[in-house]
Amino acid sequence: MHKRRFTILGIVVMCLISCQFSENIYVNEDGTGKMEFSMDASELMKMAAGMDEGKLSPGMDKKMDSTIVFKEFLNEKSDSIATLSKEDQKKLKVLENFEMHMVSDPATNKMVFDISSKFESVKKIKELFNAMNSMGNLQGQGGLSSNDSSNPFALMRSGGNTDVNFSFKNNVFKRSSKVIDTLVQKQAMDSMTDMAMMFEASNYKLNYHFKKRIKSVSNENAIISEDGMSVVLDVSFMESLRAPELLNIEVVLED
To answer: 176 — phi, psi (to 5°)?
Structure first.
């Protein structure tokens, strides 16, 4: 139980080093939908092969297409989970509505992870991100704590030093984020100096999909799809940490 849990979650945090991140949200007319956080770690695959002189580490050297339904996984391991601390049990409990899809192909250096969950209201997306970000504190000894300023999840998560909110009302979808304490933000970014070079190559992309055509978008860097039903906003990952408001966007849909 411990080995597999740490392997699954360890891969997620390891990918923070060299990944392209995508925040994908699919919104229905009634405000329900699906949130998906994807990580393209193909560059990590290439880097690992190069460092190992063409030989990948165990677990990365085989073609894989696997889906993990966390609720089923937690039910299967309920006896083992019961032996964990109450704090760790709680952190695992909030993940039960998530699914993780992992695709790896060493022949093409492809490695992609998708973590997703459905929501009953756009406002609930905030809670889903908080639950997902709790993975950062499930690494065991030597892992990244969700309160560690060197952990990007700690910087991005709502409830940390960044307040992120989502809303959908009267055909208007909003994503808003702001830094709560500028001093804490500066200290957090300063602590990431040694890691910044690795993160600079990564981007954070918003991909939002709707059931109605888009009338207008507030962020001038956002691009509306040809069919008018989706919008994309691509920002440097490090810049999104330094200034979370770069990801603020208001999407107005047609009536």
So the answer is: -130, 135
